[in-house]
Amino acid sequence: MNGYIFPFTLAFTALSVVGALLRPASDLVNLALLASVALVSLGRIPTSWRSGLLAVLALTLTLLLRLNPGDKLAFYGLLGVLIACFLLPNLPTLVRVALGTAILFISVPIAGLTNSFLFELGIQIGIFAALALGLNVVVGQAGLLDLGFAAFFAIGAYTWGIFGSPQAAQFIEGFPAGGLPGNYLYLFMALAIITAAITGVLIGLPALRLRGDYLAIVTLGLGEVVRVLANNLDKPLNITNGPQGITPVNRPEVGFLTQFLQAIGAEQVYGKPIDSYITYAFFFYLLVLLVIGVVILVNIRLANSRFGRAWVAIREDEIAAKAMGIPLLPTKLLAFATGAAFSGIMGAIFAAKQTFVSPESFTLQASINILAFVILGGMGSIGGAVVGAAAVTVLNIGLLKDFSDLLNTWRQTGVTILGYNMANLPPQLNPAKYERLVFGLILILMMIFRPEGLIPEQRHRVEMQEARQEAKEGGSK
Amino acid sequence: MSELALDVQGVTKRFGGLVAVSEVSLQVRAKEIFSVIGPNGAGKTTFFNLLTGIYKPDSGRVVFFGQDITGRSPDWVARNGIGRTFQNIRLFKAMTVLENVLVGHHTHTQQSYFDVLLHTPRFHASERKAKARAMELLAYMNLDRRAEELASALSYGEQRRLEIARALALEPRLLFLDEPAAGMNEQETEDLKTRVRRLRDELGLTIVLIEHDMAMVMSISDRIAVLEYGSKIAEGLPHEVRSNPRVIEAYLGKGAAGQAGGTHAPA
User: Fold this and answer.
1) How far apart are CA A151 and CA A366, in angstroms?
2) Range B183-189 average pLDDT
3) Which of A219, A395, A415, A427 could connect to A148 by a Cys-Cys bridge, CB 3.0–4.6 Å?
4) How far is CA A74 from the centre of its chain?
5) What is the pTM of this model?
6) A29-79, pLDDT tens digit by residue?
7) Residue A304 CB partners (closer than 8 Å, separation 6+)
8) Closest Cα of chain B to A350: distance in Å?
9) Residues of B in contact with A320 (CB under 8 A)
10) Same domain for A388 and A275
11) Which residues of chain A make contact with B79, given a CB cutoff of 8 A?
């Protein structure tokens, strides 16, 4: 059986690629390509062939996207190839880097410049991935359950939101009326790291003296405190503008990017001027990519240092960790501050990207979403945090929306499926209404069938196995 | 008489109405192998926990090489020269054997947060040094060939040895071993005895151990203290303790003491 997988994969991939070249706009061909990506990534085939086939598939999908920028399936295929490069073991580093860079910096922009939704999706994934990576340090590595993580995101967002908008002039006399020019964002990204880290320490100092459930409840409360503060600090001194939020938040100048795009002849290629909306989408896409790259690097470096080892030690056994000379509170605070810093910097970018900051973006729901990314991806695993964020984002603003559009078309055209006229479909069945339900179902299924997450960290897998073993032994007694 | 490594002065610990450790005093000299024995529930482990900072004594003082360490936190005690193992093995089971020892070397791994972020030469140097030291200690405990395996994959005896290697990574001056031979077979115990002696002879460590294996205790210890119901009932050289009537009574029950006819007074 195993012997047939390789030739079958080869044939199937070749067929779908040829199909794509002959009939570029067919959904069937796209689905076949998606299946090929899965087969090539997961099937048992020689590594060199795997690299080659992934490259061919990436190229084909890019071509399809160039021809039809709205082709979502092709985009998901590319995302699949990207995730495969990121996660597959024993793929040569050169292939990994080359393919990943090509997809991120060539394929996505080619399509994104005419369909900014792709950038939007990329930015969204990037921001959530950074948040997930931040929380991953706290919950995944150090084992500290934090239910108020969105607070640090809020701190970062308000750090730039207040000073990069007319808001600061409201309570600081002589401050420039329109706020600081957009280019100060770069400085404020650094400041947001600091303010968020300090908030992390301030929240951590009382909270981290507690353990487990108590810690979770206290962080939940303190996280809410930050949101409630943002909601109410509009009087006596108007610092946050309360529930109305702050707008417009300035964005950096992107003249250099416009010039670059003109220089490489993007306007001729697309046959239309590239407007500032798309340019900004492209800019934030690149900025988020850069930051997420740094965040991943920092995460990996910390995990393989004495700090990362100390965090895992604390997670596994606090008493033994103490007996190894590891001071609990400072080490936990370091994890808290590090995680907070990651979300702080993304907060500042988020504020500039949205040009709007309000307390509504930082509710308990947001904190729980971030935690769900981490759990879904696999606690403690860096790849898991990124994939978890990507999967949920694609599901929420990609797949469910597509499904909703599809249902709408059916409703409007009145197609009959299985004897049921879709025109009678009640509006309650609009997927937007049960997005949470789908999400919840996925989480429940995951917890039943794969509790260690999509891409488990080796250590957590061991812990899970041990727990199961103990449960089994306890049950048989 | 050589330097005092540990000077315990009348430490007492109560849990509610129960006096777990009562007015225990003892002195351990530098480079001595000192055993604490006693029947189950005599308060030996509680006594260890008092000395290593896990519990704070209600009264009494603990002096370590001339420094008062009473009531210090466990991590402070660990950083300042006292390593320990646990009765119910507390390894980081999901980490590799090597990583366990590296955690023990935490304070001696000279890398700051920014060294880690920027991967400075100091980071690489410290990481290399820590790994080399850890491998050396693993080799010392005959575990170097299993460095990359998960700690949970080791056998019981190997896990006990790994706990010792991990404690040694603290570069301590004194090592507390809480029932190091528990669960070991005869050959493993023999091997352990040699290793403990080498720790003292080659590394110059002071070793305090709790042990139930009497053959091991008698052959390895320079001196022995006996606890019963939280109080010290005897202290002395192995042969003195062995023939002490109160000790025999504690272990074998009343009546046994007469037959043994020990005349040595408790220290």
Assistant:
1) 9
2) 89
3) A219
4) 20
5) 0.89
6) 888 888 888 888 888 888 888 888 889 999 998 888 888 877 788 888 888
7) none
8) 24
9) 86, 90-92
10) yes
11) 325
Architecture per CATH, B82-171: 3-Layer(aba) Sandwich (3.40)
Q: Rounded CA gap, A159 and A345, in Å? A: 10
Task: State whether A320 and B52 contact (CB < 8 Å).
Answer: no
| Secondary element (H or E) of residue B236 | strand B231-236
Distance set, CA A330 to CA A201, A203, A214, A314, B150 (Å):
9, 13, 19, 12, 27
Contacts of A143 in chain B (CB under 8 A): none
| Fold entry, domain B1-81+209-267 | Rossmann fold (3.40.50)
Determine contact, residues B83/B172, Cβ cutoff 8 Å: yes
- Whether A278 has a pLDDT exceeding 70, the answer reads yes
Judged by CB atoms closer than 8 Å, whether chains meet at B78 and A324 is answered as yes
- Domain spans in chain B, listed from the N-terminal domain onward: 1-81+209-267, 82-171
Q: Edge-to-edge, what's the strand order for the sheet holding B18-29?
A: B18-29, B4-15, B59-64, B67-68
Other residues' Cβ atoms within 10 Å of the Cβ of residue A330: 11
User: What is the average pLDDT across B92-109?
Assistant: 95
CA-atom Rg of chain B in angstroms: 20
User: Which residues 6+ apart lie within 8 Å of A103 measured at CB?
Assistant: A58, A62, A78, A81, A82, A85
Nearest 5°: the CA angle A181, A184, A185 is 110
Centre a 10 Å sphere on the Cβ of residue B149 and count the other Cβ atoms it contains. Answer: 14
| Residues A332, A230 share a domain | yes
Phi-psi region of A242 (alpha: psi -120 to 50; beta: other; left: phi over 0): left
Do the chains contact at A313 and B103, CB–CB below 8 Å? Answer: yes
CB contact under 8 A, B130 and A306: yes
- CB of B174 closer than 8 Å to CB of B207: yes
Q: What are the DSSP calls for B34-49, one per residue?
A: EEEE-STTSSHHHHHH
A144 with A215: CB under 8 angstroms? yes
Q: CB distance B95–A319 less than 8 Å?
A: no
pLDDT (tens digit per residue) in B202-238: 999 999 999 988 889 999 999 999 999 999 999 999 9
DSSP code of A223?
H
CA of B223 to nearest chain A CA: how many angstroms apart?
26
Same domain for A130 and A169, yes or no, is yes
- Residue A236, preceding bond cis, omega within 30 degrees? yes
**Chain B residues in contact with chain A using a Cβ-Cβ cutoff of 8 Å:** 52, 54, 73-76, 78-79, 83-84, 86, 90-95, 99, 102-107, 109, 111, 113, 116-117, 119, 123, 127, 130, 150, 152, 166-167, 169-170
CB contact under 8 A, B93 and A322: no
Q: Which of A365, A329, A338 is nearest to A205 (CA)?
A: A329
